[in-house]
Inverse folding.
């Protein structure tokens, strides 16, 4: 769903999705909902805004092929998605940009850099989940070759082998990266370029969601984003999800 990006209100302005495969689309994008997470940024001043942006489409997204931490570039559609999304994001004041170091994200973020002139800080912690031996396989091939592990994967349970990064490890590193990104511009807006599962579990980590809630949270579509804002009393708030 496309809707205008909300400019921050005067009180909020400082002076000056899993496998990185096809997106889960769960209906219209969430409206500003203000779902609170635990407080984690007690500094006084206007609220900080995080815009967590998934990369544009790749050929492997179309093929339902697991990319994980392999460095797959955008296809032509993905480049066009990135250009259009960047034009919308650039309509609000952005104070900092942070990105996964994988090419499909840096190529996406480059479109925003071209419009804002801001530098990009690369952070390996924003990479997609490492899928180990499954990287390069399609969503159909994984259960054929790894039936028991695939059942655990789909249930959100620990996989235990195949070199696949566990979800708690993914959530921990991405949540830490998002905290550090927010600290770059207290009271400002930070755009964070990342991947489907990384975004999902990083957002859930900031909000303090348990596994039962995370399973209900749809993965971002390609070049869609989630907006979080920090409230000094209630902590991190989910303002909107799956916007483009």
């Amino acid at each position: 769903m496309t809707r205008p990006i909300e400019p921050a209100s005067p009180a909020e302005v400082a002076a000056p999705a899993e496998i990185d495969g096809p997106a889960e689309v769960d209906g219209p994008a969430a409206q500003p909902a203000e779902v609170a997470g635990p407080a984690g940024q007690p500094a006084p001043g206007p609220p900080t805004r995080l815009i967590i942006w998934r990369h544009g489409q790749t050929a492997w997204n179309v093929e339902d092929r697991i990319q994980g931490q392999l460095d797959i570039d955008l296809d032509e559609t993905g480049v066009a998605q990135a250009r259009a999304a960047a034009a919308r994001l650039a309509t609000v004041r952005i104070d900092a940009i942070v990105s996964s170091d994988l090419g499909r994200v840096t190529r996406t973020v480059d479109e925003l850099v071209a419009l804002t002139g801001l530098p990009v800080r690369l952070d390996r912690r924003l990479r997609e989940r490492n899928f180990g031996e499954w990287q390069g396989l399609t969503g159909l091939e994984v259960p054929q070759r790894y039936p028991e592990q695939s059942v655990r994967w789909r249930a959100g349970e620990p996989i235990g082998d195949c070199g696949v990064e566990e979800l708690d490890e993914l959530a921990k590193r991405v949540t830490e990266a998002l905290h550090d990104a927010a600290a770059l511009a207290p009271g400002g807006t930070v755009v964070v370029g990342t991947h489907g599962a990384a975004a999902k579990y990083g957002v859930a980590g900031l909000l303090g969601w348990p596994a039962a809630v995370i399973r209900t949270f749809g993965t971002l579509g390609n070049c869609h984003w989630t907006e979080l804002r920090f409230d000094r009393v209630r902590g991190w708030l989910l303002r909107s999800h799956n916007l483009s």
